[in-house]
Amino acid sequence: MNSEVTGITEIKEERWQEHDHVCPADAHDTAWRGDETLDPRANHSFHGWILYDGACCSCTASARRFDRIFRRRGFLFLPLQTTWVMQRLDLEPGAPLEEMRVLTNDGRDIGGADAVIFLARQIWWTRLFAALARLPGMHNLLHRSYRWIAVHRGYDDIACDIKKRRLPSRRSTKTAAKRPPLFEFSPAWIPLIVLSLIALLARNHVAPWQFMWLMAAAIFFGCKGLTFWSARRQIVHPRVGRALAYLSLWPGMDSRKFLGRPTHQNLTALSRQVSRRPRGGVRETLEQELVSRASEELSGKTPKKQANIAIAEVFLGGVLLFGFARLAPYPLLTGWIGMIGMILVLHFGMFALLAIAWRADGLDVRPIMDAPLKSTTLGEFWGRRWNGAFNQVTFEILFRPLARTTGPTIGTIVAFLASGLIHELVISLPARAGYGLPAAYFLLQGCGVIIQHRVTRIRRGMAGRVFTVLVVAVPAFWLFHPPFVRHVILPFMKAIGAL
Question: b/e per residue, 34-70, with b = 16+ CB within 10 A?
Answer without folding.
Answer: eeeebbbbebeebbbbbbbbbebbbbbebbeebbeeb
